[in-house]
């Protein structure tokens, strides 16, 4: 494959009757990364994934999977090299995890899969329940088994929809750390999740879509820098608040008095040192300074909340 993008969407449009689920979506998933696909319910995430996997036909535009387009001679082989965990994992309730894995290995025509099955069950924390019927499993345990099934055969790309669904806090951390290791194992990850704090910790890159349209894309650091707003609270002498406000406005920051010398600062803040230096140069000295850094949740809400469509960022198509 000549491209380093394992999945691409090029001007993808998907309509169902008069409803447009995806509108002109263009993005790429670079090899060796963990990429998040984020959007509110109904934003078009699942529809886009279904088209990518050949489960739905685009109305306009195109997608590629491991360099192959749906309907091309190599597409079926590309699909076999992709692991998926979409919505509920496909599990035989009367079969044990080990039996489910063997059934899947047989369907994929994998040779001598026993060692790999044992390794994957250990990887997702199911070794102790490997021979227990899966039907009695909790949702979190079924998610673990679904992840093991998706990783069977060493896929080049794995597509995960809410992979930590049903897990307790310890399980969420465990699966998050596992997903972060997958690129080093040769598996690129495309993950959809509503747990934005987890996406921020898990993913290298993220794409945010709203109403089927891409509104922001980049590394987590780029998204926080471009769309996030850090907040600082500080305290000066009560008589210095007006002058402090003017000094901070001079470097493009907004300041609001909270009373008794306490102030809230917002805007393009580049560390507490920046604020301290500007105020000290003006003869104002801080007695308190607390910084609240921008988070992905804040970026997500600012880009996907109900506002005028014309105000959405207009991004260039990603090659």
CATH T-level fold name of the domain at 5-81 and 155-225? Rossmann fold
What's the architecture of the domain at 5-81 and 155-225 in CATH terms?
3-Layer(aba) Sandwich
Q: Span from first to last CA?
A: 16 Å
The overall pLDDT, averaged over residues, is 89
Structural class: alpha/beta
Strand order of the largest sheet: 5-6-7-3-8-9
Helix percent reads 25-40%
Main sheet: strands, sense, barrel: 6 strands, mixed
CATH class of the domain at 5-81 and 155-225: Alpha Beta
How much β-strand is present in the residues?
25-35%
The ordered H/E elements are EEEHEHEHHHEHEHEEHEHEEHEH
Q: What is the helix tally?
A: 11
The CATH superfamily of the domain at 5-81 and 155-225 is known as: P-loop containing nucleotide triphosphate hydrolases
Description:
- The longest helix is centred in the middle third of the chain and has 13 residues, at 139-151.
- The strands form three sheets. The protein has a six-stranded mixed beta sheet, sandwiched between helices.
- A hairpin with a 2-residue loop joins strand 11 (254-259) and strand 12 (262-267).
- 33% of the residues lie in helices and 27% in strands.
- It has helices at 45-52, 75-80, 97-107, 114-123, 139-151, 169-181, 196-202, 220-227, 241-249, 272-281, 296-304; strands spanning 5-16, 19-30, 34-38, 60-65, 82-85, 157-161, 188-192, 205-210, 213-219, 230-235, 254-259, 262-267, 288-292.
- Among the domains are: 5-81 and 155-225, Rossmann fold (3-Layer(aba) Sandwich); 230-292, Alpha-Beta Plaits.
- It is elongated, with a radius of gyration of 24 Å.
- The protein is built from eleven helices and 13 strands.
- It is an alpha/beta fold.
- The protein starts with a strand and ends in a 15-residue tail after the last helix.
């Amino acid at each position: 494959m000549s491209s380093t993008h394992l999945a691409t969407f090029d001007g993808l449009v998907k309509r169902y009757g008069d409803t447009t689920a995806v509108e002109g979506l263009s993005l790429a998933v670079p090899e060796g990364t963990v990429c998040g696909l984020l959007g509110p319910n109904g934003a078009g995430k699942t529809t886009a994934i279904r088209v990518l996997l050949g489960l739905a036909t685009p109305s306009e535009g195109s997608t590629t999977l491991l360099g192959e387009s749906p309907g091309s001679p190599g597409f079926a082989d590309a699909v076999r090299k992709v692991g998926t965990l979409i919505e509920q994992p496909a599990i035989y309730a009367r079969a044990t995890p080990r039996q489910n894995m063997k059934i899947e290995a047989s369907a994929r025509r994998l040779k001598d899969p026993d060692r790999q099955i044992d390794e994957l069950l250990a990887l997702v924390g199911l070794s102790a329940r490997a021979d227990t019927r899966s039907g009695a499993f909790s949702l979190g345990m079924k998610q673990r088994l679904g992840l093991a099934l998706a990783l069977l055969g060493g896929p080049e790309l794995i597509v995960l929809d809410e992979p930590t669904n049903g897990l307790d806090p310890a399980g969420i951390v465990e699966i998050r750390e596992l997903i972060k290791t997958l690129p080093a194992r040769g598996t690129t990850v495309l993950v959809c999740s509503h747990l934005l704090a987890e996406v921020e910790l898990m993913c290298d890159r993220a794409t945010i879509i709203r109403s089927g349209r891409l509104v922001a894309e980049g590394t987590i650091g780029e998204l926080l820098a471009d769309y996030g707003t850090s907040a600082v609270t500080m305290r000066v002498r009560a008589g210095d608040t007006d002058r402090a406000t003017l000094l901070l406005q001079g470097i493009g920051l907004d300041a609001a008095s909270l009373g008794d010398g306490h102030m809230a600062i917002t805007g393009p803040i580049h560390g507490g040192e920046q604020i301290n230096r500007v105020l000290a140069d003006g003869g104002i000295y801080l007695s308190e300074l607390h910084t609240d850094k921008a988070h992905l949740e804040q970026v997500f809400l600012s880009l996907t909340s109900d506002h005028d469509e014309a105000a959405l960022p207009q991004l260039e198509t990603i090659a």
